[in-house]
Amino acid sequence: MVDVLSQNEIDALLAALSSGEMDAEDLKKEEISRKVSVYDFKRAVRFSKDHIRSLTRIHENFARYLTTYFSAQLRTFVQINVVDVEQLPYDEFIRSIPKMTILNIFEAEPLEGRMVLEVHPNVAYAMLDRMLGGQGIAPSKINNLTEIETTVMERIFARTFDSLQEAWKTVIDISPRLEALETNPQFMQIVSPNETIALISFSTKIGDTTGMINLCIPHVVLEPIMPRLSVHHWFVSQKKERIPEEVEILEQRVHKAKLPIVAELGETSITVHEFLNLGLGDVLTLNKPVDEGLKIKVGEKLKFIGSPGSIRDKMAVQVEEIVSEGAEEDYDE
Questions:
Q1: pTM value?
Q2: Mean pLDDT of the residues in the chain
Q3: Are 168 and 156 in contact (CB under 8 A)?
Q4: Where do the domains of the chain lie, and which CATH numbers do they carry?
Q5: Residues in domain Flagellar motor switch protein FliN-like C-terminal (predicted)?
């Protein structure tokens, strides 16, 4: 960000130029001189700040959905929040996670490639303990999963991808599907070690147990939809095409909607004294001739002109004219 000089700094700079302490030509040369910045090819920058902000917004929603899902499944206090979204080489991610952890490898059509949802053993075993009737306490020593534990884990995390699908709906409709569950990071190689990934880290609290959940998304997976992660995509309104079934349901509901219809015989004004003394048989003179049509309003809008009558001993009104939008003002006058 460009620094803004205060008024005192501007005055001091002008005074130095006037006194000869500083040379304007030297300042121009410094400005023209090429600025060199260090670039690490092992940490290639593939995601812009704009992309990182979009990924943060998407996965903040994902965190809220996960909080609701796990709270209902585990029947205990669960809190999940996004704490960091960064880009780094895949190899650095593998080296940063425990040697024994829960790795949910999944795909999300139509995106090509595999992604990983890494769950810290403390969090995973606390979930497992709750699902099997315990208090949700992680064991002090982490052992390999048994077949039963693996099956329970797969069922727990397979349904978390419904929340991921919901969170990504604003960008693209994806269909996440759990491919495998691993516990050793060394046996998992979804991309080359130098491939840049987006790493979304979630702080997770289940009862008194805390830990991290990390979502690893390789750049090569998101590359086809990178333009959709821009601010322009988020804030430019897009018209959603309605499917025929939605249109038909909407039409049915409109047809069943009830609207008040009022036929006005006319209007008149009386005093409060006259109103209090009204009795059976009194006649009120209206402001409209007998041979003039009645105004028929739908809601508050004048829509028809009709004449009074009766059908089967019930009062009725016959529509004789349809009032167009332009002619409505003439009738109101």
A1: 0.58
A2: 81
A3: no
A4: 43-236 (3.40.1550.10), 258-275+285-322 (2.30.330.10)
A5: 252-323
